[in-house]
Amino acid sequence: MSCHGNKDDNKGHNHSPIKHMLHMIICCGLPILIFAALPFISRFSPGSSRILAVIAPFICPIMMIGMIPMMLGRGNNKKSDCCESKEENQSAQLELNNRAE
Fold first, then answer.
1. Rounded distance, CA 7 to CA 49, Å?
2. What is the DSSP code string of 47-86?
3. What is the pLDDT along the chain (101 residues), one digit of tens a residue?
């Protein structure tokens, strides 16, 4: 997003990308593991293997929908996003500059 500026200007936005990478690994890897395990699961429980075969393709899209709040910053209980706080800071600075003049 353009409101983040460059990486040097981003001192308040410190988070590890490991959480996002783990989410992506689970999102892509879990359906692959389920499809790989379906022959073994069907030996013990054919009914559950059918259910897993139907659900597995939709695991990634469901997890991506769950990832949207994290990307928007609502996962950390923030009341506003970075763009709104930047605009408020700029308007406060303009007010202070007008008072100083």
1. 47
2. HHHHHHHHHGGGHHHHHHHHHHHHHHTGGGT-SS-HHHHH
3. 555 555 555 555 566 788 778 888 888 888 899 999 999 999 999 999 999 999 998 988 888 887 788 778 765 555 555 555 566 666 766 676 666 66
pTM: 0.52
Which residue ranges make up each domain of the chain?
14-100
For 99, the token pair is 């008072």
Phi-psi map region of 5: left, alpha, beta (phi>0 left; psi -120 to 50 alpha): left
**Alpha-carbon gap, residue 86 to 92, rounded angstroms:** 10
Distance of CA 72 to the CA centre of its chain: 8
C-alpha 66/C-alpha 59 separation (Å) is 11
